[in-house]
Amino acid sequence: HLGEYLGLTGTRMNAADAIHAGFADGFIPQAQWDALKADLVSGDISAIKYETPPAGMLPSILAEIDRHFSAETLGDIEQSLKADQSDFATNALKALGRHAPLAMACSMQIIRQLSPTDSIRAALEHEYRFTYRAVAQGDFIEGIRAAIIDKDRSPKWAHPTIMDVSKNDVDEMLSPLGADELSWKETA
Fold it and tell me: How far is CA 152 from its chain centroid?
């Protein structure tokens, strides 16, 4: 349930964690990028030589991630974390508290309805539906207000708590867009 954990908490990954989670194939130190780019531009793909990245944190917390983030609903995840006094649970709960409940519920729905065989396009189509509606829904604008405009870091989300988000709310955000659906056709 690594996807749920990363998607709901917004936890940052280092290179080893990104490889572990399947977001990256390998690690090349930044100091080597300019030389690598020059080699690749000249057509030398043999210049790609992965190195061992600094250790990540995800492997050490996978059991805790799966224990909590395998819960059936977002509310169940929250309750599981609240019942655990570990540093992991405390930090994860704090992260959940920073994000818009509707956005987290939609993220969880997207992650859980996609299968491991779905393409990146399928994932982006679901993300697009949410993003298309996000400004009109209001939490996106409220997040900007709280973080950038007023800088009070106290957003007033449309759904004050995780328990206030209904299945219908999520379905409305993620339903097909009809004529406005994401198109992969190239335009001239």
Answer: 24
3-state helix, strand, coil in the chain (%, to 5): 65, 0, 35
> CB atoms < 10 A from the CB of 51, how many?
10
φ/ψ (deg, to 5) at 125: -65, -40
Q: How many CB atoms lie within 10 A of CB 16?
A: 18
Question: How confident is the model over 121-174, as pLDDT tens digits?
Answer: 999 999 999 999 998 999 999 999 999 999 999 999 999 999 999 999 999 999
Beta bridge partners of 27: 51
| Count of beta carbons in the 10 Å neighbourhood of residue 22 | 10
Beta bridge pairs of residue 51: 27
DSSP string, 131-153: HHHHHHHSHHHHHHIIIIIS---
d(CA 186, CA 82): 48
Q: What is the pTM of this model?
A: 0.87
Integer Cα distance of 10 and 12 in angstroms? 6
Coil vs helix vs strand at 167: helix
